[in-house]
Design goal:
This protein is an all-alpha fold and 232 residues long. It is built from six helices and no strands.
């Protein structure tokens, strides 16, 4: 009992520390007008993709939860744990990507001042998702354990349901985000390098925005869900 309580407290402390890092990040200089405009375009594209992806995933999650609730014992409890796992996994990816989007322009502004400043901004923003992955995993598993500890030996099956929920989101977030990332990357190279002779990641190529959107979706949100699944 006490180790689980300690894990819950540690997870809550981790979430508060991640919130502190976000607070300090948002206080940093967001950069010049041009940098902010590009960053805003990337943010709008990444959020639009993520919302659409999660909106589609809701139907899959609900159907699987109903199946688990009907066929697996204890009835309904595995489904609840499954939904909790999907929520935590999606939350880890969403928080990480939102922070990464806010950190893009601030990292550029920091590098313009000094390499150390830019590194600190980038490192702290990346630490947010890492801490959230661990903290959400501890909090989620601890709450599920406390809520259903009266089920005896069945608690193991319920906790497995939590892990299955995390895996469901990680699968689609990682694969879906990765396909979009690579599609945008190849499309940008074909249009820029092959047809127009523009160097890679040149701001004159509008497809660069889609490429960077894919990087944020696949390498941050997808990675967040993937790490959460592995940790849980």
């Amino acid at each position: 009992m006490y180790p689980v309580l300690i894990a819950l407290i540690a997870g809550i402390i981790g979430l508060f520390f991640a919130g502190y890092l976000v607070f300090t990040l948002l206080k940093q200089d967001p950069g010049t007008k041009e940098v902010r405009e590009i960053s805003k375009a990337i943010e709008e594209g990444a959020l639009a993709f993520l919302y659409r992806e999660y909106k589609t995933l809701v139907w899959f999650v609900v159907i699987v939860a109903i199946i688990l609730g009907i066929f697996l014992e204890p009835r309904g409890l595995v489904a609840i744990a499954y939904l909790a796992g999907t929520f935590c996994s999606a939350g880890a990816g969403y928080i990480g990507m939102r922070v990464g989007l806010k950190a893009n322009c601030r990292t550029v502004a920091g590098v313009m001042k000094s390499l150390n400043k830019g590194l600190r901004v980038a490192f702290n923003s990346g630490a947010v998702m890492g801490i959230c992955v661990v903290s959400l995993g501890l909090v989620g598993l601890s709450i599920v354990y406390f809520a259903f500890q009266g089920q005896g030996d069945k608690i193991a099956d319920i906790l497995i349901g939590f892990g299955a929920g995390a895996s469901s989101i990680a699968l689609f977030a990682r694969v879906g985000g990765g396909i979009y990332t690579k599609g945008a990357d190849v499309g940008s190279d074909l249009v820029g390098k092959v047809e127009a002779g523009i160097p890679e990641d040149d701001p004159r190529n509008p497809a660069v925005i889609a490429d960077n959107v894919g990087d944020n979706v696949g390498d941050i949100a997808g990675m967040g869900g993937d790490l959460f699944e592995s940790y849980v």
